[in-house]
């Protein structure tokens, strides 16, 4: 048998409206919007709120004119007032010829231009009296928040009139739709070139005042907040130390290259001189030798060198590479520019910036390197921990309907080459002359001595573990077949994504094997009695699937073995179905294995 390892706070926002009545002696100016009744019902509350805040007013007759389009000067004045932007630090000369210094909107337009909220319709024209379009309004409000990042246009792309949204406005419109700051005008339509009505502006402005902090929290520096994900040859990578992003450059620990490029890569850190040397004997695409040397906190690196270039940098100036970011030492680990070092050693690097995902490919590295690294670790480092295995085997004749069932359950405590196990075996079938079997055994392997207990007899039999311990001493304590690692490239393997097991997030891998691969992986010591059955299987529809679940520590936490095949004897075809579930617990834990009480041991001769 072979085995591998793996694996809102709902924030309730309670708005408390505290209504306080104050009796003031004196007189206040009465604020009246005379044509409020002409406004849409959805806009009335916002119009009253903004009027009380002195952000909007009626004309000389007290009319708000809710259906009238707002001008660019009017809307920018409201935004500057709401944000309380300084309108004193203004230029001596007007930026736009249509908003001179003596115009009432001059200070608001210049303050907004200084803060990056607006641009003109041209270099010297603002369009002060032109009606503001809906996409212009969206852009002004989002610019006022300082949100400039590119967005995934999920909402924009769902609009029926998405083609009418100007390219410069798409990211801003996306944010307004995603946050509910603005909505469509009906039938999944945004009407980006339509004019913004005064009542619409009032509603958006009211939402803006109440929700601007929440919008900022959600979208400011969204890319930097979004978790960086790295996929290498089909696997999502977990770094030993979290990458660092400086001025847009991703730095990763050099252990990434050592771990996932395996024997084809080597790095060394020379503490006395503070330099790092990285080399790869066969770098894609031409399998050429490459190396690079650099120092932490120093931008100059040198490629394909012999000796120490830092002793005399002038002699190595033709080997000089200026790194796009300075390597850093964090908690004793060197972090290096990810893209630059990857591409230097022949890897293909692509970053999807909106999603903050890096895709890395290397033709000389194995596919699904996380699985490969895990198998490699299990081959060379014996297992410690607990393991339980449950097997169900069913053999049934197609013609006669005769069947046999085998249930084989094992529980192991393993400490490298020593283990203790309890085995339950049950066999039954359709043959009335065949007595059903139920047996429980105990097995202890300790210091190359094997103890076997028949619970019916109640005694332990001691014997030399000849044939139990593999001749290759390095194989002691292994819970996977070495051939699965050695012949890794020959197998059909897929990564089927993340799966939760007992509350742990694991990655599921599926390996599909043909008949020859099955037999090469069948270990005599475990389920070896199945090998004669496999030798008889010749049906081309044989299916043998291994599922391996590993956690982010490169530990196998579960395996599933599923076998379906057909054998044929002289009289009929027989279906063979086997399912084995293997679970691992307390992985890496030291477990004491002790010999049975001497009084219970019989020595086998």
UniProtKB/TrEMBL annotation:
Could you tell me the keywords of this UniProt record? Repeat
Record flagged with keyword RNA-binding: no
- Residue ranges annotated for the SLH domain, each copy included: 30-91, 92-155, 156-219
A Pfam family assignment: SLH
Q: Does the keyword Acetylation apply?
A: no
Q: What is this protein called?
A: SLH domain-containing protein
PANTHER family linked = OUTER MEMBRANE PROTEIN ALPHA-RELATED (PTHR43308), S-LAYER PROTEIN _ PEPTIDOGLYCAN ENDO-BETA-N-ACETYLGLUCOSAMINIDASE (PTHR43308:SF5)
Q: Tell me the organism.
A: Anaeromicrobium sediminis
